[in-house]
Input
Amino acid sequence: MQKTLGEIIRENRLNRKIGIRQLAKTISVTPSLICLIEKKSQSSIGYEKMKMLCHTLELDLDEILALSGKIAKDVKEIILQQPSINSNKIRQFDTFR
Output
C-alpha cells in the first residue's frame, strides 16, 4: 500500500531528526500546520512552502505534489502554453504504465 503524504513527511522528518517546531520555523509555518499535514495527510500549504518543505526533507517535489493532487508550477505553465498538444503528449506516456 502506498504511503500517504503525511506518513512520508513524518517519516522523513523523523529520519533526519528534525522536530516539528524546527521544521515549521525553517519553512515559515506554524507547528500546528505541520502536525495537521502529518496527521490529516493533506497539503494546506502553498507551492513555495511545499517546495521549501521538500528541499528541507530531501523529498522529490513532483512526487509530493502529486500526492497532494497538484502539479509543479512550471509543468502547469508548459501544459497551458499549448493545452491540446501537451495534454496529448502526457496521455501518450500514460499508455506505458
